[in-house]
Amino acid sequence: MNRDRLNMAAGYAMAVVLCLVSALAGVGITRGLYTAAVVVLSAGLLTVGTLPLRRWSAIDMILTAIVALDVVSVFWSPVPASALNAACIQVMVWGVYVVMRRLTQWPGTVTVVTDGWLLVAVVASAMAIGTYAVCVVSARKVGFDDMYALRYLYKPLGNPNNCWGEIALMMAAMACMSGRRWRWLAVYLASVSAMLTFSRGVYVAVVVLVVMYVAMVRPLRRSRDGLIAMAIAAVTVSVLFPSEVGTAVSMTSTQSQRASLQWRRDVTVSAVERSADRPLVGYGGGTFSLVTDKPAVDERYTDTAPGLAAQILVEKGAVGVALWTALAVAFAVFVFRNRRRPVTVMAAAALTAMMVMEMMYSYRQYRREKM
User: Fold this and answer.
1) pTM over 0.90
2) What pLDDT score was predicted for residue 14?
């Protein structure tokens, strides 16, 4: 009994520490965060342990296999430095998953995590909105009335524009799952900061999230506050920035939007062609842009893949595609079996919206400097 109490106390402490680490990452304080996260996760694994293997679900095993594939890919990757960096990040994220799986066995720690996320969402989103206000004032002082063309200069809390949209949308979805009455504030602020990115992927993901909430969450009142907050956020952004919102939802009204779609098609075709050279296990993590760019033809280079599917195909090959497909099937089966639990359905909606964003993820493209 004393051991159980000690483990629960350690679980609460780890939940608080993980929330603090997440808060530091959320507000852009990343210097030394990797080292701190490794220490925290190591302490967590030693303190609270992991679930016994007999209690591992199919999702646990498939995720572990995906991480193991990234780790061993270092040995055959043509760019081992990039593969090693990706493998280290994957192992760290896997450590977070394993610790959280253990912590969620104690109901009290779930409350600590969700409440901690509420605080992170409110503070980080308020800071991001304040950053955007400064950006708007500065742009209009020098003669820019439409912020859409300058959206990539908006880097809330040090995050690239589209990356922040994904982070903010996840914070809004996490806030919806909280049981606190003031969760609507976190949902509203996070939704506003996400929509201020004017990212097409964010807008589509918001629609997916809302549709899934309305169609699947029962009773509907469980998600009512979150839906209302998102609707008010959409109205707020549309009223304050009608031109920018109109451009974003039109999808192809500007030359840059059309060029983006064309680029996605071209790079996806290039990804399929390059994957044919290593169809089974791919080139290893973090190598997508290194193997798909064609500097002899184009002076531009890519920082991110145009979508998750193309990235998996190039970096992990057929084995990776099979593992991710198995993960999607296992996830769908789990959600179906627990469809009467509102929190499970809301979490499934959030993850589905995130996957939609990953499939539509915008790229960052840079010019090579001529010597």
Assistant:
1) no
2) 57
